[in-house]
Amino acid sequence: MPKEVHRAGIPPAGLPLVDSSRHERSDAARNRTAILRAAERLVADRGADCVTMDEVAAAAGVGKGTLFRRFGDRAGLLRALLDKRERSFQEDFIRGEPPLGPGVGARERLVAFGDRLLEETEIQGDLLLGAETWTPGERLVHSVYTAHRAHVAALLQELDPACDPAYLVDILLTALAAEVVLYQRRVLGMSLPQLKDGWLALLDGLLR
User: What is the pTM of this model?
Assistant: First the structure.
């Protein structure tokens, strides 16, 4: 586990998994399952950016109010679709095999962390983009970003105790945001290996 970071702006690195499990009534659990399955089908057929909350509610056979009460908004629904992969990712960087998990140096783990996020964006970039950008600024206070931020900040301080992780961590994570990565891939035509090389160069440039 990464050691705690006590500088201003960085919480202790007890990393919260996204949307921790909670006890649900059987009808609520059935509704959640139906909604997520309907959303998955619609996203697979048409893409995340073309799916509306009205369509998901109709496909799931639930009221629109039920959908909004359960997930809050469209971004919350898209984050729920990402939940399983995000849980696996967090488990891997907290307790998994190196280089993403413990057992190697901080630099190797930071490189692996960025490479994995770039690969996740390659696989499910439209879902990530929808979850990140629907409500401006919301992703920065969400438990997923909080977990990533705490982990990267701990590794930064381990790698260079003289650096300011409270500042650098957000600079680094911005480079891995789905909006930025998809722009580089789809508009600028950069390759995935090129982005991975760029991530490595960014780390080395900031942490000389």
Answer: 0.74
